[in-house]
Amino acid sequence: MLRIVNVLLPTPFDTPFSYAVPDDMQAVEVGRYVTVPFRNKELHGVVWEIPTQPPTFKGVLKQITKVHPFAPLSHTTREFIAWAANYSLTPMGSILKLTLSVPQVFLPIKGKVLTLPSPDIAHAPATLSPAQHTACNTINTALDTHSFAPLVLDGVTGSGKTEVYFEAVAHALSQGKQVLILLPEIALSAQMMTRFAKRFGCAPCLWHSGLTPAVRRETWKAIVDGTAKVVVGARSALFLPYQNLGLLIVDEEHDASYKQEEGVIYNARDMAVMRAKFESIPVVLVSATPSLETVCNLEAKKYTALTLPERHGEAVFCDVQLIDMRKHKPPKGQWIAEPLKKAVLETLGRGEQALLFLNKRGYAPLTLCQACGHRWQCPQCSACLVVHKSAHKLVCHHCGYHEPEPEHCPKCQAEDSITPCGPGIERLAEEAATTFPEAHTALLSSDSMASHEAAENLIGQVMRDEVNLLIGTQIIAKGYHFPNLTLVGVIDADIGLSGGDLRAAEKTWQLLHQVAGRAGREAKKGTVYLQTFLPEHPVMQTLQQHQRDAFVQQQIHERHFAQLPPFGKLASVIIAADTLTDVQKSAQLLAHAVPIMEGLTILGPAPAPLALLKGYHRMRFLVKTPRVFPLQKTLREWLEKAGLPRTVKVQVDIDPYSFL
Ligand code: ADP
Ligand code: ZN
After folding, report:
1. Among 260, 294, 312, 394, which is most buried by a count of CB atoms within 10 Å?
2. β-pair type (649-654, 568-577)
3. All domains of the chain in start order, with CATH
4. Residue 165: nearest ligand to its CA?
5. pLDDT digits (tens, 9 = 90+) for 562-610
6. Of the candidates 358, 308, 354, which has an alpha carbon nearest to the alpha carbon of residue 519?
7. Cα–Cα dist 517/444, whole Å
8. How far is the CA of 380 from the centre of ligand 2 (A)?
9. 211 CA to middle of ligand 2, Å?
10. What is the mean pLDDT of residues 77-83?
11. Where would I find the beta strands (DSSP E) of 130-270?
C-alpha cells in the first residue's frame, strides 16, 4: 500500500506537497518534522495532513528522506500558521519559515549543548501592593482555568507592571508551562535579563536575530522540547514551535516596532492575541499608554483591563514643562533653549542625571552644498543621506547604503561648502559638550547600542553613575529604569506630528509620555521639558496636564469619524519593479481590475512616499473598507484578476503603520 503524506515546506507556496513514505519507515504522523527532496535540494518541512483521497498527481511521488525525533508541531501552532497566512495574504510556507527559522537543527551538527538553568519561582518573590495583587490574580485565574483571556495591564511607568507580570510568570511556571515575553526592541533585553535574574535566580532564554548559530540552534531545540521555560524575544519569537505555551506577555504593546515591515508583514501584538486564542491561554498586553486599538477593544469589552493606579513607593509622575520655542529661540546652529540649559546645570549640580532626547540618529538629517545647492541623496532610495560623524560616513536610513564623508562637493567641486542642516544626536552631543563642559556624556542610539554587549556596557555606565548627561534617541525611551535620572529634555517634541500618518498624534504622545517616564523613577521627583513650536497642540497639553483620557477619547472620535482603524479597515498594496515603466504598467493593470463593491474605496495608484527604495521603483494603492468586510478575499481576487507579471513585487500590508 502506498502511504502518502502532504508536507508543508518553508518556501513561498501556499499548499503542502505530496510525498511517499518509504516502505521501511514507520507511520509518520501529522506535525512531524521531515526532510524531503525538493527541486534538487533537501528541504525540512512539517507533515501537514494525511490525504484521504489519492493524489491527482500522476507521476512517481518522491519519498521522505528522514523523520526527525523532535516533538511534533502542535495542532494549535499549525492552526495559527494557517490563520496568519490567510490574514496577511502570505503563503503558508512563508509563515512556516518563521517557525523553522533554524534549519541547522535538522542537520547532524554536533556542538555544545546549552545548559538551561530552571527559573526558581521561590528565588525572590515580590510582595505585591493590593492593586498589583488584584491584577496578578486575574491573570492567575485565567491561567488556572486554561482559557483564552486578553488582558490589558495598564499603569504609568513605575507602577510595577513588570513586577506584576513576573508573579504571573511564576504561576505559569508552577504549572509547568512555557512563557513568552515579547519586547518591542531587543536592546531592552539587557535590563530584562538582569531583572529576571534578580527575581528568578537565572537568566531567561533570549530570542533575537543577533544570537550565534549555536545558541540559536540549542534554543530552538529547547523551545520544542519544553526545556526553555521562559523566552524573552523580539517579534519573531512569536512563531516558534513552543511545546506547551501557557502565558504570553506583550510588553509596551502600543509600540510601533511590533509591526514587521519587511518580508512577511505583520503586527506581532495582534498576532500574539490570535496565537493566545488558538492556544487557549491568557495574553497580557502591557503599557502605560495603550494603543487606540487596545482601548477600543477594552471599551467593546473584548479585552479586560488590569489597572495599576499609581507609581510604586514614593515615586510620583514627573512635572511637565512646555518650552515655547517661538519665545526661546536658541542661537543659530544650537538647539538647547535657555530654560532647559538652566535645568540641566541645576540637575547635574545636584549630582543627578539628565537626558537630552532627540529622535534623530546621526549628525544632521540633511547635508547640502552651500555653493551649488547639491543635496546628498541615496542612489537607491528617494531619501537624503545622513552624516554619521562618528563613523565618517554618509548613511541611508532606509537601505543602509553608505559612502565616505565627502571632502568636496561632487557637483561643483567646492571645498568647505558642505553644510549640515538640522540636528541629529551627534550634533546635539557636540553642543552639549560645549554648553556643559563638566558633564560626562554618553550617546545612546541604535548605532551605539547595536550589539547586546555594547548596549549592556552603556547601560552599565549609566547605572554606575559614570555618566551624568545622556543623549539619546527613542531607543532610550523604552523600559529603562535609571534611578538617578531626574531631568528629561526633549529637543524637538513636534518631530512626529507632521506627515500623513493616521497615528501621528497617538504615536507622538506615546513616545513623549514614555520618555517622560524615564525621569524621577524613584524617590526624587522628575521634571520634563518639552521644546515645542506647538504648545497648544492637544498632545502637548495632554502631557502637561496628565490628562490622557480626554486625549484618547478625542483621538478615538476622530478615527471613528473618518472610519479609520480600528473602526474601518485599511490596507496598502505596494508594487515594485526595476524600472519606472514596468511599475507604471503594472499599476495600470491593477487600476483596470479594481473591484467595484459597496463600502470599498481604493485610492491610487500614486507614487509610494518612498518612490525609489533599495533600487526599486514603487507605486501604492490604499484600500479602505468598513470594519465588517471580506478584505483579504477581495484583495486576493483583485490581485489575481490583474495578472501582474511575475517580475513585479507585490507587498500587501494589512493595517499599515508606516506611511512611508
Ligand atoms: P513598570 O513596569 O510599570 O514601569 P516596574 O515593575 O518596573 O514598573 O516597577 C518600578 C519600580 O518599582 C521597580 O524598581 C520595581 O522593582 C519597584 N516595585 C514595583 N512594585 C513593587 C513591589 N510590589 N515590591 C517591591 N518593589 C516594587
Ligand atoms: Zn537608500
Report:
1. 294
2. antiparallel
3. 3-74+82-98 (3.40.1440.60), 130-308 (3.40.50.300), 319-360+423-556 (3.40.50.300), 568-654 (3.30.70.600)
4. 1
5. 999 999 999 999 999 999 999 999 999 999 999 999 999 999 999 998 9
6. 354
7. 17
8. 5
9. 26
10. 98
11. 149-155, 178-182, 205-207, 230-233, 245-251, 259-260, 266-267
Residue 335 CB neighbours (<10 A): 19
| 127 Cβ closer than 6 Å to some ligand 1 atom | yes
pLDDT band at 297 (very low <50, low <70, confident <90, very high): very high
Closest CA to 131 of 249, 306, 287: 306
Q: How far apart are CA 30 and CA 586, in angstroms?
A: 41
Q: Contact at 8 Å (CB) between 500 and 603?
A: no
514 lines ligand 1 (CB under 6 A): no
Does residue 160 line the site of ligand 1, with CB under 6 A? yes
Is the Cβ–Cβ distance between 250 and 272 less than 8 Å? yes
Q: Is 150 helix (H, G, I), strand (E, B) or coil?
A: strand
DSSP code string of 269-293? HHHHHHHHHHHT-EEEEEESS--HH
Distance 262 CA to ligand 2 centre (A): 15
| Number of residues written out for the chain | 660
Tell me the pTM: 0.92
What is the residue type of 516? A
Q: What is the H or E stretch that residue 85 is in?
A: helix 75-88
